[in-house]
From TrEMBL:
SUPFAM superfamilies: lambda repressor-like DNA-binding domains (SSF47413). Residues 85-104 are annotated as: Disordered. SMART domains: HTH_XRE. It holds the Pfam family HTH_3. This is HTH cro/C1-type domain-containing protein. It comes from Streptomyces roseolilacinus. InterPro entries: Cro/C1-type_HTH (IPR001387), Lambda_DNA-bd_dom_sf (IPR010982).
C-alpha cells in the first residue's frame, strides 16, 4: 500500500462520510465521534484515516462499510488492499421463468447452487447464510390463567 493509495482512499471515504450526513468539518460538529460510535470503533481510527496517517484495519473497515452502507468488497478494493481480481463477483445464474414460483423466495439450497457454491461447501454456506434470514414469527405461548 502506498501513500497515494491512502490519499485516494481517504479522499473517497471523506466524501462518502459527508454524503451520509456526518459533520466531520467543524471541530464541534461531532461527526467523527458519531461515526465512531455508530461503527463501534475508536474515534482515533477515524481521525488517523481522515488525517491520512493510517489505513483502518480490516475490522474497522468492515464496520465503517456497514455504517456507510457500502459493500466491504468496495471498501477493500478502494483501499488498495485487494483488487477486483482478488474479489471476483459471483457469476449470475440465469433467472427462472417468471411463472415459476413468482413471489416465492429462493431456498438456501437454490441460492447455493445458483451462486456456484461447491457441493462440499454448501452445508457451511447454508448455515452461515441462514443466520441472515429473518426468523419466522415466534408463536406466543398461551398465558396461564390465574
Amino acid at each position: 500500500m502506498t501513500a497515494s493509495d491512502l490519499e485516494q482512499f481517504a479522499a473517497w471515504i471523506e466524501e462518502l462520510i459527508r454524503r451520509r450526513g456526518f459533520d466531520i468539518d467543524s471541530p464541534r460538529g461531532g461527526g467523527k465521534s458519531r461515526l465512531a460510535d455508530e461503527a463501534g470503533v475508536h474515534r482515533a481510527a477515524i481521525t488517523r484515516l481522515l488525517q491520512r496517517q493510517s489505513m483502518p484495519d480490516l475490522e474497522t473497515t468492515r464496520r465503517l462499510a456497514h455504517v456507510l452502507d457500502v459493500p466491504v468488497r468496495d471498501m477493500l478494493i478502494r483501499s488498495g488492499r485487494l483488487t477486483e481480481d482478488d474479489l471476483p463477483l459471483p457469476q449470475v445464474a440465469e433467472a427462472p421463468p417468471r411463472d415459476a414460483g413468482e413471489g416465492r423466495r429462493l431456498t438456501l439450497e437454490e441460492a447455493a447452487a445458483g451462486l456456484g457454491v461447491p457441493p462440499e461447501q454448501r452445508e457451511m454456506f447454508m448455515k452461515v447464510a441462514g443466520q441472515f434470514l429473518p426468523a419466522a414469527p415466534a408463536r406466543r405461548a398461551p398465558l396461564a390463567k390465574e
